[in-house]
Amino acid sequence: MAMYVLSRRGQYSTSMLVGGLRCSSTWLRSISTGFREERDTFGPIQVPSDKLWGAQTQRSLQNFEIGGDRERMPEPIIRAFGILKKCAAKVNMEYGLDPTIGKAIMQAAQEVAEGKLNDHFPLVSVEFKDIIKIGRTHTQDATPLTLGQEFSGYSTQVKYGIDRITCTLPRMYQLAQGGTAVGTGLNTKKGFDVKIAAAVAEETSLPFVTAENKFEALSVRLLGDASASFEKNCVRGIQANKARISKLLHEKIGYDNAAAVAKKAHKEGSTLKEAALRLGVLTSEEFDKLVVPEKMIGPSD
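The line above is the sequence of Fumarate lyase, N-terminal; the predicted structure tokens follow.
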């Protein structure tokens, strides 16, 4: 959520905060529907009464309606900004920010910072451990494996990804706040960068520090939107289509039978078993005995 009461880079002025103060959550308790009027250098504009942002954010929503709901920030990023803004308000009160305004900012920022994400991704590898499906290599059907084995690979990829991120934490804990627009620290107070890092560290119980070089710190990019969307739209609530998996598994097994059987099955659109029976290579009983998917999902004894 963008919040007008919280200005860019953690530096606030009374003129920028007056509108935001009017729309803090304390003031909104008596307003449930409709719009309120906010003003900026372009004049008045109507803002939904239940939103914490002000005139500039509302104009941005109207003038730059690109992507819409498809390109919203991941919730963890929004919560992180809430923590930053709360700490910035706390430090700015030490530098003379009106406590009435500062406390309103902190209250609104705390509301932004609250929330949780569900993570069920690694659990399905256990749930799917007995479901056998056809494996694929180079876009072609290959040998069988269980759905659980397949998802264990995904789970391990996520684990290794977390490990790689963990290794970067000493640098990720360096905050650019206090560098303002381009890293120079223009319009901030001396010591603001150190104090806000200390405040964030206290708020999160994590070892945040101010970045040694604010110019370098400004180049960091957060690439969390794809993972958040995948988790929400695909992984969460995923279920196995057992009937479909079984059908695909037995339609084409591949590699284990004679070329003639595979060629005939492909040409006629039949299963390998049907092709083998029509060619007289195997009886039905022999095929069922030799081709057992459950014995093809791991090393032999």
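Note on the example: DSSP finds 15 helices and six strands in the chain. The domain at 252-295 is CATH 1.10.40.30 (Ribonucleotide Reductase Protein R1; domain 1).
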